[in-house]
Write a structure and sequence with these properties.
The protein has about 130 residues and is α/β, with parallel strands linked by helices. It contains 5 helices and 5 strands, in the order βαβαβααββα. The longest helix has 15 residues.
């Protein structure tokens, strides 16, 4: 039996965090940790590295872009795939240098979009 993938969700809106958690769990049966800000998530990286991170970029304290910069500065965290989930219109920005494999817009995404992006991101590293 293969191990469950570990997923971090960094989202400061409790209802959105719950929606993301449900969709990810339904998609891949993951072991999920949810954080309301980037500082808590950064601290948790010292204990366990996730297989995937879903990240809101508009956060209190260090924002999601600061978190992305921190991740890419270390070899062991630079390879973690990231799905950005935001109300910002990030348009056609190429964020792949930060490990971003998908961008979902909060106003238009559906649970199926979250599940598909999660499966696709985890399958890149053979975690699904």
């Amino acid at each position: 039996m293969s191990k469950k993938p570990r997923v971090f969700i960094i989202e400061d809106e409790p209802i959105m965090a719950e929606c993301l958690e449900r969709s990810v769990r339904r998609a891949v049966g993951a072991e999920i940790q949810t954080f309301p800000n980037a500082l808590f998530a950064m601290s948790a990286l010292n204990e366990h590295l996730p297989d995937l991170i879903l990240l809101d970029v508009l956060l209190d304290g260090p924002d999601g872009f600061t978190f992305l910069n921190e991740l890419i500065s270390y070899p062991d965290t630079a390879q973690i795939p990231i799905i950005i989930v935001s109300s910002l219109d990030l348009g056609r920005r190429d964020l792949s240098g930060y490990g971003v494999v998908a961008t979902l817009h909060k106003d238009t995404m559906t649970p199926n979009d979250i599940m598909a992006a999660t499966r696709q991101a985890l399958s890149r590293n053979g975690n699904v």
